[in-house]
Amino acid sequence: MANMLSSVFAKNRTEEFPDDVYSKYVLPINNHEIDISDASKACVIVGGRGSGKTMYLKYYCFPTILSSNRSDIDLKNLKNLGLYWRPDTSFTQHISQNWLGQYWSSAFNSYMTLSILIEYNKLLQTLINHNQLSENSKISIKNIEIPESITNQLSVKSDKIYLFEAKKILQNSLFTLCNWINSPFTETPPFSLNTKGTLSLVANELNTAVSELENITYHIFIDEFENLTESQQVIINTLMKHGEKQLIFSIAHKKNAIISHDTLGNEKIVERNDYRTIDLERHYNNNFDVFAGEVLALRLEEFFDQKQLNLFVRKEENLEYRQTHDYLKEIRNLAERFLPSLTYSEMAQNIFSDNSLYDKLLAIIADGLILHKKSKVLNAEQFIDIKFPEASLVNAAILNRNNTLPHILLEQFEEYKGGTSNKYQQWIHNYLVGVILLIYKKSPSKDCPFYSGYKQYVLLSRGNIRHFLELCHQSVLLNEQFNAKTSSRRLDKIPVNIQSRATKKTSGLELEKISDLGSHGSHLKKIATRLGRIYSYSQTRKSQSEVEINHFSLDLSDETELNEDTRTLLNEAIIWSVLIEEHSTKQKKSESLEVKDYVLHPVLSAHFGISYRKKKKLKLNKESLTIIFTADDNKFNRLLKSFITKWDLDEEPLENTNDVVKQLGLL
């Protein structure tokens, strides 16, 4: 049992959990759409960073399928057992022709085969301890020998090597091979194992020996496929294309990653014919609020030492009920009680009750009156009414527009208060959030409530459960620092101001982490920072004429007009979810190719004080995008200054910041 609530949110990566993820897995409420428990052909699982690919794969692997925590599995009805392999991609980069010569592929096949054989060894250990397996079957498992053709390659001297106890032998062989790969002192590797032939032999031995498994297909899952070299991908593609009844191979990779579809023959792997694509990101996004709510409820249940939901969300017979209105309402209500939020009206009222924030509102309205040279005949208080806080905030933006006539606006305000003006309804809908963000940007010591609440955390996470859990973790952790009662066994809500502060911290941490994403992480962080600064300056416009900008489109006839460096970085930003690529919903001209929008990930919004809602976009031409993505700081600051001039802002961009990234190999 955890002592502090924050501890149950600390782990947000599947790699931090045991191989048996049954107690952590939430069966999707539309599981039939992505269920691969009886897959008969290869699968390609795609999704963005943090979309749950690894957790999904491990759910179908033998440690979870045969978990001691579950009672809903009948071995005789099983179709597939998964074996998980995530290659050490920093090591596999050495397994190349340039380093090892013509026998590199033999070394790669042997490396992959040994790694999976070690998983088979673990599978046998699990089966021996499984309560549904007969004693005769367990004896048969213990008598499964590694075929002589394999032991001869490994130069094992014993006459009989039983697979269930061969872990040390296999690990020693893998160690020997890795040593040769690191320092190939001979032309040929120490041994050569054919992946498909070796694993098929073992699969056949196991199915023949154990009657309960005679019809089982062994499903080999290869994670982080995009990090393998193209030549290595071709080898695995060939295994995918030529799977068989007892043995199929599947892969998982980041969505939008550039991967090979070639095989060692003349054919490519083809969707539907050779594999099925499962887009986890798209699937989870359809019900992400429910999924996040159930994950949150499970973590709370773990802390409060209850097991009802834990068992409930894992059983297929409960899927239909979990889609009912009552259940969905219950999950959302629980999450909203724990992570409460304010309405926009309440946020507006809070500004009136805080002297510092209220003074900022008065100052913005006063600036509008000065703009129209009316500061001597009208005063800011005339445009404010505590009974109508939302309309009062909107007045601040409307007054700072060149075409506004203050006397007319004042008349309209009076009509609205009297119930006879309809304009304010649309104005409030369009501009209220922008003014709230503007006022809080002018008060950086204040916690902006726009970034708090369960629904808001769902939007900020944008389908990334890792982001959602980190937001929860930082909120609970901060709450524990201010409120010792959190360690009690009572479910207390997290105050809105603490959530907001935690969101800003999480946002900053996620920005820093970008540097570690892939080989171009430093460049991606600089791009995110530059876009964030542009959007942040846009948010400071007193007129809020173009509100809540957090994405851009390209004013191009074709993306190939971009230079190679910019295209590469744009694609990398999408792969690593720094930017989210979407089809534009506001294409004005049929001949325009502004068909894609590029949204800065919402989790970064709080750091820059911008909106996470997709409202207005910035249209960038080729030159501007190239500067943002690849130019030095001086050129970028000149571009930023042009935006500041265009938007009639008072601020000046910083010159020569300390975060200049040296032009690395790519650029």
Residue fraction in strands: 5-15%
- Major sheet size, sense and barrel closure: 5 strands, parallel
Radius of gyration, in angstroms, nearest whole number:
29 Å
Low-confidence stretches are 655-667
Structural class: alpha/beta
In total, the number of strands is 9
Overall 3D shape: elongated
Q: Give the N-terminus to C-terminus distance in angstroms.
A: 51 Å
Total helix count? 27
Task: Provide the helix percentage.
Answer: 40-55%
**Order of strands across the biggest sheet?**
2-3-4-1-5
Q: pLDDT average, as an integer?
A: 90
Summarize the structure in short:
The protein has 667 residues and is α/β, with parallel strands linked by helices. Helix content is 47%, strand content 8%.
What distinguishing features does this structure have?
four-stranded mixed beta sheet; 47% helix; disordered C terminus; elongated; five-stranded parallel beta sheet; 27 helices; 667 residues; alpha/beta; 9 strands
Topology (elements, then pairings):
Layout lengths: L41 E6 L5 H7 L2 H4 L14 E6 L3 H4 L4 H4 L3 H25 L6 H8 L5 H6 L13 H16 L12 H15 L7 E6 L7 H12 L5 E8 L20 E5 H7 L1 H16 L4 H5 L12 H14 L5 H10 L1 H17 L17 H11 L6 H12 L5 H19 L12 H8 L3 H18 L13 H18 L7 H19 L9 E6 L9 H12 L3 E5 L12 E5 L4 H4 L7 E5 L1 H9 L2 H14 L21
Parallel strand pairs: 1-4, 1-5, 2-3, 3-4, 6-9
Antiparallel strand pairs: 6-8, 7-8
Can you offer a commentary on this structure?
By secondary structure, the chain is α/β, with parallel strands linked by helices. The chain is 47% helix and 8% strand. The protein has helices at residues 53-59, 62-65, 89-92, 97-100, 104-128, 135-142, 148-153, 167-182, 195-209, 230-241, 280-286, 288-303, 308-312, 325-338, 344-353, 355-371, 389-399, 406-417, 423-441, 454-461, 465-482, 496-513, 521-539, 564-575, 605-608, 622-630, 633-646, and strands spanning 42-47, 80-85, 217-222, 247-254, 275-279, 549-554, 579-583, 596-600, 616-620. It has a five-stranded parallel sheet, with helices on both faces. Strand 3, helix 10 and strand 4 (247-254) form a beta-alpha-beta unit. The longest helix is centred in the N-terminal third of the chain and has 25 residues, at 104-128.
